[in-house]
Amino acid sequence: MIAAVLVFLAFAPGQDSMTAARDLYASAAYEDALAVLDRLPKTNRPDETRAIEQYRAFCLLALGRTAEAEHAIEAVVAGAPLYQPAAADVSPRVRAAFSDVRRRMLPGIIQQQYARAKAAYDRKDFAAAASGFARALEVMGDPDVATAVTQSPLSDLRTLATDFHDLAVTASTPPPPPTPVPVPPPTPAPVAPRIFTPGDTAVVPPIIVRQELPPFPGQIPVAKQGMIEIIIDENGSVEAATMRKTVSPAYDALALAAAKTWRYKPASVNGVPVKFRKIITITVKPHA
After folding, report:
1. Domain 12-172 class in CATH
2. pLDDT tens column, 38-82
3. H or E stretch including 113?
4. CATH architecture classification, 195-284
5. Which of 85, 156, 189, 256 has the smallest count of CB within 10 Å of its CB?
6. C-beta atoms surrounding 148 within 10 Å
7. pLDDT exceeds 80 at position 13
8. Rounded to whole angstroms, how far apart are CA atoms 103 and 124?
9. Buried b (16+ CB within 10 A) or exposed e, 244-263
10. What residues does each domain of the chain span?
11. Are 161 and 115 in contact (CB under 8 A)?
């Protein structure tokens, strides 16, 4: 009575699952495991579909239904070309059956993967192309096709896939941003050096080294005053001289020529020599 209840629960529709199928396979109830697998709903998940077909193949091989088992293995390999059952999980006979199917199918799968990757490359979808060529090369490294990849056409495809993969990776990698070219700061317009005057409190006025006026030529009936303006540069030389109040045309020329020879200790601000504007009064008196 207890056994009958357990069997009924095991095969109740609500109990159909991969776990139930695995348990039945493990207990050597292969037909019952197949029945559960057939009742499982269709799924869009590749890993679940592969698991169903994988255990279907296991059961069919155990029942000696080799042709049907190969169809189930083909479904597994088509969805997961790199899948191979672990040696610790299945018998050598099952692994041999998977290897036989994989040796037959993988060359075609590799060519399909290469064709899809090349099509992606041709339409300039370089990221998809790089991924596709990488998958094809990974499958080419599988031990079950080790002999096939040394022969044409796979040997040629391997060379092409390697080259196109490298090109696709390079093309899909965005170039580094251009190094910004440093923009030099705008060159300021030249500014004439400031000319200080006696009214600037921060300036130390120039000190006379040589400042001699020429004698007035001839006679003059009454005293006269003139005024000469000079610009003393940072070296203490007179850079410009101008008559601001004339004495006489002849004497003005003599005074300006003499002014160009005058020398000074230059004016300074905080110890730095600066230009300085100076006014000099000229007084000419008659001879006694």
Report:
1. mainly alpha
2. 888 887 788 888 888 888 888 898 898 989 989 989 988 988 898
3. helix 92-122
4. 2-Layer Sandwich (3.30)
5. 189
6. 17
7. no
8. 32
9. eeebbeebbebbbebbeebe
10. 12-172, 195-284
11. no
